[in-house]
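The data are quoted verbatim for completeness:
=====
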Amino acid sequence: MPANAAYDEQMEALELYSDCAYLVSADNGEVIFDKNAGKQTPPASLTKVVSAIVVLENCENLDTPVTVPEACIRELDGTGSSLGGLKAGEVVTVYNLLACMLIQSANEAATTLADYISGGDRAKFISMMNEVAGRLGCVNSHFVNPHGLHDENQYVTAEDMATFILHALEFPAFEEIVGKSSYTLPATNLQGERKLINTNYLLNSGYKDYYCKYVKGGKTGSTSAAGRCVVAYASNDGYNYVGVALNSTFDDVDGDGVEENGAFLDTKEMFEWAFRNIELVAISDTSMIVCQLPVKYAKSIDSITLSPGETVYSLVPSGTDSGSLLVEPIEGTVPEYVKAPVKKGDVICRAKVLYAGNVIKEIDLVASMDAKLGVFAVIGTVAKDLSSNWLFKFVIIPAAVIVLILFIVLFVRRKRKKESASYRSAKAGSYKVLNYNDFTKLR
């Protein structure tokens, strides 16, 4: 269950400028804030995060030299593209092309890398981008170019962008590059060294309104259709978050005569709010007794208690204690009773953990004790169950009584008959009958 329900009201008070905003824990995947996070919107140069993934997944040696094709520059003529000043025939390593693409958002670096990885087959590279999206479960995103120039058939969601950058951060080179506020590009065969300035001003302390000391890296984007966009990640005191702002404004929001990038403002605000107001706590532990259930056929006991199956941690507002959390069994998962034998730790049902009336987690409830099978308990329970059955009361019991009476009558009759036979036998053996010959012998 999404955790953001516990924070929506507080986060909405921030009055974010972006049409789509998303804040998620990079540690456990809990969603802190979601504003239109599933809405499809143009990604602009955030596209380059996915292009970088394709490159990093398909190039083992980032020191490989690549010659910039003239066609990869010329295709961008007249597009108003963000460029890195690369020249046709210039030899640049894959790593440095990634730096141009991710730090300075150079579109010709993106087209050159796409050409290199696909062997000149642009359709193949686009297919690889969409394969990455499908593999990561980002089914609401689609790509038709490697750089992010506007196309109606190219779109992402804020939720998907968070997934993309989390995957990209698994590559050390990506994390290293996007974490640089600037980078000195080494001299090449056609140009001397030059300095690349990161378009992500969240990293640059020279931009007071935007700089966020917690931000470790990210990627920006901007087109007239996409508005201002950014995806970034931040860390502080062991907590890690990914923030996404899409289709944001570029207006003078504070009346100082200078237009501000709403995506930067929103991302900074979300990160700082999270680090001020959220902490990881144990919302349930195995020693907690949540409820008890009747148990049938058990030896010596007639009920068992249920506890959380594991200690579960969740991000909750700072200062939250156990008294602010409620663990409640989920109706429909709780049985009327359980049957022995039951072992401690057996999963019995599910429960929800609530904070301020909102569900922030679902957990398993397990038996916190053993319930051994008892023979006499089985007999007693069966008898008790039968006694409440109308068929047993009005048919079986009367029939049993009749059978018992007949048995007793037959038993008594048989006993009397036996006693009578014994009496006759005893009477016949109490004297001797003499005949005439016997008297003759006596004489």
